Amino acid sequence: MRDVSERALPIVRSQAFPNVRMRRLRASEAMRGLVRETILRADQLIYPLFVREGRAERQEVPSMPGVYQLSSDDAVREAGKALELGVRSVLLFGIPSEKDPVGSGAYADHGVVQGAIRRMKSEYPDLLVITDVCLCEYTSHGHCGVLGGTAVLNDASLELHARTALSHAEAGADIVAPSSMMDGVVGALRHRLDEEGYEHVPILAYAAKYASAYYGPFREAADSAPSFGDRRAYQMDPANARQALREVALDVQEGADIVMVKPALAYLDVVSRVRERFDLPVAAYNVSGEYAMVKAAAQNGWIDERRVVLETLTGMRRAGADMIITYHALDAARWLREDGM
Ligand code: PBG
Ligand code: ZN
Fold first, then answer.
1. CB-based contacts of 318, cutoff 8 Å, min separation 6
2. Do the domain assignments include residue 249?
3. Pick from 121, 159, 290, 314: most CB atoms within 10 A?
4. For residue 102, what are the domain limits?
């Protein structure tokens, strides 16, 4: 029997090979570490939390194993865990006990999110508390603004979004994040915050937010599915990338401090183009459906969860995201720590 190597093809010389051999720099972990271009750190991750009114026990979201609807006490404890692992930012969503057509709970002084912010900031002053500013968890119809017939009214909704952001800032939020895709919402928030003495509070704009089926599990988690229709008349058409650049440019003009692309995985080209065109920090939202798919496959033993999660988050960073909002934040931070990162 002849050895395989004896049957190897003759070396084909090119301009480069065999002088150039890419494998030289892949030979050991130390070598790979030396030439690694993209670094993922725990403090680049933002951990979303769902805070529910009342004191009931934490309740797992069926389509998002490991994600819970929390009482505000539990949410504070969860934020503490995050901090211990080096994850220094959380993104809060509220689940009120009552809903109405104008989403009053969103801007109530003692609403569920406002209360959670106060508790978190008093327990952990150094924690960065970011709040999602939208009405859909608080409206009886589940849309992100107020209705005129079956249409979501843009300009009439701006005042309520501004009021919501102000109430978060008053409660101590460090960053407000408008997610409604109403035209002019960033400017409306900036104006109101400045008027009321919160000119130091940054705006993280959900700038390029697509009308995505990947939000399905979130709507179960936040109880925010629209009761009729969908969000395609305000969120972006998944087919558009150039339009995302216009959306970002407008939010920058209106005073956004950080711009977000959402979802992340199916839109990494958009992340990359936004990164190249703009100098602001860019955030990517690794959304609920992306999380659910990984969890489902992992629970079936079909993928290696740890490696898939770290590879995915690294891919988002490589595409140009400075920060990533992800339900995997605590697991990822733990794994990065074990890997000595
Ligand atoms: C609220 C909001 C949504 C998400 C973040 N903020 C849902 C939606 O627009 O329907 C989705 C987050 C996720 O899927 O993880 N407007
Ligand atoms: Zn909304």
1. 37, 38
2. yes
3. 290
4. 40-338
Catalytic-labelled residue, pool 81, 99, 121, 262: 262
* Model pLDDT for residues 172-187, shown as the tens digit of each residue: 999 999 999 999 999 9
pLDDT in tens, 285-334: 999 999 999 999 999 999 999 999 999 999 999 999 999 999 999 999 99
What are the angstrom distances between the C-alpha of 166 and each of 31, 173, 231, 242, 258?
Answer: 50, 9, 25, 32, 18
Between vectors from CA 230 to CA 208 and to CA 319, what angle results, nearest 5°? 25
Domain tally for the chain? 1
Q: Is residue 20 part of a domain?
A: no
Compute the distance between CA of residue 113 and CA of residue 50 in angstroms, rounded to an integer.
Answer: 9
Closest CA to 202 of 179, 173, 180: 173
Token reading at 213: 């089926």
Instruction: Say what the pTM is.
Output: 0.96
- How many whole angstroms from 221 Cα to the centroid of ligand 1? 10
For residue 83, the number of C-alpha atoms closer than 13 Å in the C-beta half-sphere is 15
121 is catalytic: no
Percent of the chain with pLDDT over 70: 98
- CB–CB of 104/137 below 8 Å? no
Ligand 2 centroid to Cα of residue 40, in Å, is 29
Which residue's C-alpha comes closest to atom 2 of ligand 1?
179
